[in-house]
Amino acid sequence: DHSQGQHLRVVEVLGSAIREADAFVELRNDGQLRLDGHHYTLSIGHRTPRPLQRRVIPGSTDALTPDTPPTIQPGQLALIVDQTMDDEHLRRLACESPIASDVDAMAVKNPMVASSLKLASAVRCLPVYTLGGAYQSLGAALEKSNEMRLLRGEEVHDEIHGFWSYAPPNYAVERVSDEGHDVRLSPLGSTPGARNYFELDGHRPIRVLASSPWRIGRRIMDLQALAASQPDEATAAAAEIDALLGGQLPPNPMAHAFNEVLDSATQRARGALYQLNDMEAVEGLTRTAKRGLDVHLTTDGEFMDDEGYRESHDALRDEGVTIQYDLDENGENRSGTMHDKFLVIDGHTTFTGSYNPVVDKPFRIHADNALLIQSREVAALHEQELDIMAAGHFGVSKRDHGRAGGDRFVDGSRVTVRFSPGLTYSQRKRRADALKAGANPVAACDAVVPSSGKFSIQDRYRTLSPCGGPLDVLLTEVARATSSIYFVSFSLSLDDMIEVFIERHASGVDLKGIVDPTVSTRPQVDALLDAGGDVRYTPNSDPDCPSYITPQSACPTNPNKVWLHHKFVVIDYGTDHPVVITGSHNLSEAAEKKNDDALVVIRDRAVAESYYRIFRETFDHPQTLGARRKTSDLPALAITQVVPSLDPAVPSEIELSNFDSQAVSVKGLQLWNRERSLSLPKIELGPGERRRVRIDSSGAADGEIADLVLNISGGPFITPRHGLVLRHGDGRWVATYDPYLAEQNLPDGVAVPKGLNAQSWQYDEAQLAALRMQLLGHNTTPSAPIPTWEPAGFYSNWLDEHDVTNAGLILMQSAAAPWHPEPTP
Fold this sequence. Notes:
single chain, alpha+beta, about 25% helix
């Protein structure tokens, strides 16, 4: 009954599986109520409907409560699988990644860190069902019919008609609208347990917003190009360039995005904003209030009498906007900081991240990010926190009030929210002692204070799963990393998290990050560098100009002065289970112990794609500094074509191209698919030469069909949804191939590929020529008074993913015909 919030529908089907037991049907709850799968039956073709029966995965949180039937939460996915699917394969599809190592065997010295990890030892999984009755094989049933009905009692609740039985092996059919016949092949193969590639009904409930740290330099380059192509614009362009070099800053795109969200409001806008003096954002708030809507803001008391904020705060109050400061019971600014940066619109839209609606610092650009989430459930968590602060409770005084977050689902992706502050040292200590004494996770969360017999951990944290605050979530998510940890953080002082970073890196996890230069010499950064991590920092002043010179506009040769304000971590990008941690939490002790901060964790391929690009944009920039920045000895090699395979009997193939003017050997380089790596043998590529590399797991390689054949075991090495890196033996990247497609990352004029058109990726000849110029150091702006921001002369610094750069665009082709972008009408 859709009117009562019951709306369960089939969103993905794998019917043509290489192994019959791997077939699955994926469901999603698009209603507003929790649903019990046992109330449904599934009919494939004309067969008798079969009931959905629960399947419990060993080692999961469901296994701890086997008598409690799983419910499908609003926005959550569920899987129907073959009865013969083995537990290990099912766990990979349906569950979050486990803690990567046995906690007792991890090189973690702090017992409180170990306790956080032990609490998360039982993984959370999607609800999983099999078909009851006479079905012996779900795969066999799906191969015989291309229609399906989902029933609740006698009523047909949903139906779908597809061509899954005719799809290539291990390619799933995904639904693209509410219509049961509107389905397409997923360009990523099959993605069970993950948000679908296609946005159903054109709805985008999760968006990533960001402001580039290099927008001054980019604007200067655009103006130079404009002046060169249109002489009548040259004078105006030159004047704007002079202004930018003199310290004028271009508008912050985040302010425009912030106002777009405000303009969508029809009832109310409520927010907790640490700083607020950007008049563009202030105008958006006052405009909302003028429309008669309720606008209520909480901000930090530090700015109540600050001259730099008085104009904006007065303008807001004059229009009826309520401003609440985080004052203590004596009316004084408290010691903690109201550091939140989120806005809730109409109880269903949440704007959250690192962005403060504040003017850029003089002569420095703020680099920020934000998530825009359309979800009543996520919005309710944030409004609950706003209610607590509206009642006068901030920081540590919130401990006895409400809940410190929760877990919700948006369009199939799990979203975890945690609000600061977290647990105290004594609470973590009692929890650790209980676990050491043999208590299970639930009992450890219920540890009591011996003197009073009361729970040590307040209900605000104790009722969460697992119990704890933001730090507990940070530690457990990082400890799940098996492939990579990439972070961009304004601050970095959480020693417990640094310990887990180092432990994961020692186990082979790729560790890279960027921090603001104000913290680049902290001991935590030194510890990561000493452990072999690659941590860099952005320029916030001219490299050739002493830092004490004021104003900094007196150092004009580098306009890219950056206030790197991001606070995010991307875990296991390019794998089946990427995780993004973001929000206002600074990865600092203050954020955990006394501030008001919000931490958001989202498990989603498209979101990870967006944040990975923000990371790479900054990490690879030629002006980003770092101890391990040497690239002059890296070869100018590119991965110019990839033909992935999901079938172990069908080899994968890649093409390597040498863009150097001299011969290059690949000996000592590795191909890494973010799960395992292959070392390349001695083979030489001449100037401009291309070589095909065939990667065969079938054991029947034919060396004549490729220039180089690598035989491997363990299944396909390159699939449509896995990232690929060509790297030096010491871990430095030479080239990458990233197959993820997020529609929001495609450039204007490029359509989303349909069906299998993304099965093969390649450059066309024009783009290869353009890329060759960049790799060989072609100067596209010879008259520029500043260094061009594009890399030149070495490939590792070029953003070579599929979307677009100033250097080139990777095009896609199917086996039948090349695919090219169509111009925007």
